[in-house]
Amino acid sequence: MPRQACKKGSHACDGVVRRNAEPIAYAHGFDWRPAYNCKQWFAEHSEQMTSDRGGMMKRYARPLRLLAITALSVFLGETLVMLLLPFLEPLPQHVKVLLDASLVTALVLPMLYYFLFRPMALYIGERDRTQKSLSKLSSAVEQTADAVVITGMDGVIEYVNPAFESYTGYTQVEALGQTPRILKSGKHNSQFYEALWKTILAGGVFRGELINKKKNGELFHAEHTITPLKDDSGSITHFVSVWKDITERRRAEEALQTFSQRVMDAQEAERRHIARELHDEMGQALTALSISLQTAEETAESPAAAEQLHQCLGFVERLLQQVRSLSLDLRPSMLDDLGLASALRWYVDSQGQRAGFIPQMELDSLKTRLPPELETAFFRIAQEAVTNVVRHAHARQVRVQLHRREQEMEMVISDDGCGFDAQGLQTRNARETSAGLLGMRERVLLLGGQIAIDSAPGRGTEIRVRVPVE
């Protein structure tokens, strides 16, 4: 059915295109297009008609100017001959005709050269250069390894390059006249496409990753850049989409993430094992040694021996305390027994007593336990952040917040310490970046979350972590 604009006096002329007296909205491009508007239609077509008249004037201006100049030259030449004829009566008639033609030619030829042949030569040279540039551009688009798709304002495909055929399995004949909806995989919701169209219809450039579907049904990841094309008046006429297949890169990243997760799981298992060994074996041995030294001290025969035994007992007590602290740092049993909130409160309080800062805690009471990998990741991130505060920040107050949102967990750790150049840190390479910060980022990325580090010299540090949860 063709589009129908509302007529004056028919129905309510509310500016909406109707079919059978019902407002409609056209499918446009990938998935979404607002309803066509009469006011927009008249505005667009009035601009088009104005631009057509202007183009017609430009197209015929040069021939009309050339015709006027030639006529003026002939007129001036004939006028000059008529003025000279009374003085040339004794000359034969054929000489007068020859002289007449020579004068007219002498006047017309320079003007023809200047206004016709010279512009024509310049035009031909410019046209050749333009054709060479267009040929070079066309070859670049045809031979580029990235897929190139050009659509009209209605989203209908008008051009695809060979890379598109290679990636998707659709030939150029099959793709032309279709919309990019032929690649739709069903992995993106309507809000995604609505945001995409809102961006490009406003004249912006869309950059993002899409999951597309080939002709044979196989899914693939593509990195898209969609750019609006505008005419001389600034109106959008077409859209150019350039994209490349990044499926192999995504698979490699997923394999690397899987490997990293296994390494971290192995680390946690080893930490748990070492912590248990320190607590059970080493702790019990030192406790037994402490009891033996106390007994020996009580039964010592001389004060000097008793004093030495007392010093040894002090060393053993300090060593036993260090072993217990090390065991808790490696894997606090409270995290496994009582959960994340209790473990965070215990750890931050103990570090505050040791380092001398004032802890401030805002921890939501969780009705259900989080998955073990999520609790471990949040605890390790907090542990690394507080360790950096103790070592480098020299803060007086440390604030830890843990909140459960609708579909995510958020943890914020902030301090009033000396801070650091977070912006400069992001521009450095991996070798110059703190291993602790890299570890925090890696843990968050493995969980599909986001981490933001806000800091500057002299104004403290804030680390904000968001991780999706079901």
What does this structure look like?
This protein is α+β, with helices and mostly antiparallel strands and 470 residues long. It has 4 domains: 46-142; 144-245, Beta-Lactamase, CATH 3.30.450; 247-331; 335-470, Heat Shock Protein 90. 56% of the residues lie in helices and 17% in strands. It has 12 helices and 12 strands. It has a 5-stranded antiparallel beta sheet, sandwiched between helices. Helix 6 crosses helix 12 (435-446). It is elongated and about 165 Å long.
Return the string of H and E elements.
EEHHEEHHHEEEHHHHEHEEHHEE
Strand order of the largest sheet: 4-3-7-6-5
CATH-assigned fold name of the largest domain: Heat Shock Protein 90
By CATH, the superfamily of the largest domain comes out as: Histidine kinase-like ATPase, C-terminal domain
Can you lay out the helices and strands and say which pair or pack?
Layout (H helix, E strand, L loop, with lengths): L17 E2 L2 E2 L14 H47 L8 H51 L3 E6 L4 E4 L1 H7 L3 H4 L14 H12 L4 E8 L5 E12 L5 E10 L1 H52 L4 H28 L2 H5 L2 H16 L2 E6 L8 H22 L3 E8 L3 E8 L6 H6 L7 H12 L3 E6 L5 E8 L2
Parallel strand pairs: 8-9
Antiparallel strand pairs: 1-2, 3-4, 3-7, 5-6, 6-7, 9-10, 10-12, 11-12
Helix pairs in contact: 1-2, 6-7, 6-12, 9-10, 10-12
